[in-house]
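ok, trying the design again with the full structure, not the truncated one.
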């Protein structure tokens, strides 16, 4: 088999946007990803990014956090996280608060600078597999949709929607949804923070316990109902457990 045939078929149809105020990082990253078959555009900041996104449909944006003028978190806040492209935040290592806030705002992943190009490529492929997998299963869901049900709640893992016992849709961020799905798929099992990170963000995610704790706190508030037992229990020195029975039908 020719070597070229080993490249993933989807790469040549996938358009990426690199947003970074550092021209060296911007161009080197774009060149590396282009070598792996992606169509890659670059932008130096928010204005140029919005011009390009108005003209083109991007599958994924690698977005620098620390930029002059409008920073990456402000740009992310203005984006539609339901229908917009996947976003990987890119910033200097050690800025933990940016990492937490970015993931809470719906970023799909967070890669510290300086990033090994092959690691960034692996993260991009992982995020694209998740996002494109969600889209590819959507048509079948029209006729074969199965809901995950627990304590009167209803979770649609395909449409990524949650209904409370009163049949009201509860808005979840992308991170909250993935965390809830990881718990609901493994009821009455103790899941450590590392396990939850792997399950909700993939094995290449940085292990940062505080990010899980923040998302867990917000998820618990959205699942709380007066007079009802907490659905998620903290297991001291171990992790978390989804305590109620889950059925799929």
């Amino acid at each position: 088999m020719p070597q070229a045939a080993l490249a993933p078929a989807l790469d040549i149809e996938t358009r990426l946007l690199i947003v970074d105020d550092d021209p060296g990082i911007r161009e080197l990253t774009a060149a590396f990803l282009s070598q792996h078959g992606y169509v890659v555009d670059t932008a130096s900041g928010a204005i140029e990014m919005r011009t390009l996104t108005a003209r083109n449909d991007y599958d994924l944006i690698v977005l620098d956090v620390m930029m002059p003028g409008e920073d990456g978190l402000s740009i992310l806040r203005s984006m539609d996280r339901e229908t917009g492209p996947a976003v990987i935040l890119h910033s200097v290592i050690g800025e933990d608060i940016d990492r937490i806030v970015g993931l809470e705002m719906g970023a799909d992943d967070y890669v510290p600078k300086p990033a090994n190009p092959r690691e960034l490529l692996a993260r991009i492929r992982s995020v694209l597999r998740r996002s494109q997998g969600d889209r590819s299963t959507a048509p079948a869901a029209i006729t074969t949709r199965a809901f995950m049900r627990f304590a009167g709640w209803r979770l649609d893992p395909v449409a990524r929607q949650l209904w409370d016992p009163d049949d009201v849709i509860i808005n979840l961020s992308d991170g909250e949804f993935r965390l809830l799905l990881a718990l609901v798929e493994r009821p009455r099992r103790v899941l450590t923070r590392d396990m939850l990170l792997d399950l909700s963000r993939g094995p290449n995610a940085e292990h940062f316990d505080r990010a899980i704790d923040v998302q867990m706190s917000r998820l618990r508030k959205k699942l709380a109902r007066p007079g009802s037992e907490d659905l998620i229990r903290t297991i001291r020195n171990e992790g978390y457990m989804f305590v109620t029975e889950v059925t799929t039908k």
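Keeping the full-length input from now on. DSSP finds eight helices and 13 strands in the chain.
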